Amino acid sequence: MNHDICRCISLKADGYPADFTFYPNFFSHEEQRLLLSAALHKLDMSENRKVRRRQRELLASGTLKLLNSIEQVFLPDEYYTFEEGHYDNVIRRYREIHVSSWPDDQPELQRLLQRLQELHPPVPTQTHILHLASDGEIQPHVDNTEASGSWILGVSLGSPRGLRLENAEDPSDTFEMILPSGSVYIQRDSTRYNYKHSILLRGDVGLTRFNGGQRLSIMIRVRQNYLVHGILG
Ligand SMILES: O=C(O)CCC(=O)C(=O)O
Ligand SMILES: [Fe+2]
């Protein structure tokens, strides 16, 4: 069943816009848990001591329900320090961190990261973790063209949310789809530069409804100046 809705001019045979690739089930449930736990750990390391103590106390209290859903990997919202986002900020209610390295003593995690690397050209990248609160969202924007290059890869973990693409020149040209946990998308070239993207809080796409919930994305971008480094050594 195709839940995607599109009022845009051209879709590829796979039902997605040009220069957009989607892997709906890239990571299994267990792999999602591993990646999400590692990403949350990175973010939690930069929480202050008081917040970390409260997190530890909650975990030790045994009151958390041990359900198997991916959303249960998150603690309740009040155990995280989410930024509100300023008036000129497109992201609202989030935590974020730039990642320069992942733990190298977890071979399974390394294998998952390796599989992600195989999806994109072997060029220098920058990785960024973005955690949205249950009521967090990302408003329409084009990523800074000076900060990163022609493609952007996003791994979605946690609650499903809608992704909306909107032609920056023609607001009637839009595409909406659900990003389920464990999926990976890549936007490049025309989609990356000519379309604004947003992560929706709630809504419907086709027959599927999404309604908030914590979501964490691992964003991998090609460094803007890698060619210069390549040429100049
Ligand atoms: O979380 C996502 O999938 C998109 C994040 C995003 O748009 C950004 O970091 O610029
Ligand atoms: Fe973005």
Automatic annotation (TrEMBL):
GO cellular component: mitochondrial matrix
Annotated GO MF terms: 2-oxoglutarate-dependent dioxygenase activity
Domain Fe2OG dioxygenase: 121-226
Protein's GO biological process: DNA damage response; fatty acid metabolic process
Domain of life of the native organism: Eukaryota
InterPro entries: AlkB-like, AlkB-like_sf, ALKBH7-like, Oxoglu/Fe-dep_dioxygenase_dom
One Pfam family from the record: 2OG-FeII_Oxy_2
PANTHER family named among the record's database cross-references: ALPHA-KETOGLUTARATE-DEPENDENT DIOXYGENASE ALKB HOMOLOG 7, MITOCHONDRIAL (PTHR21052:SF0), SPERMATOGENESIS ASSOCIATED 11-RELATED (PTHR21052)
The name this protein goes by in its record: Fe2OG dioxygenase domain-containing protein
Taxon lineage: Eukaryota, Fungi, Dikarya, Basidiomycota, Agaricomycotina
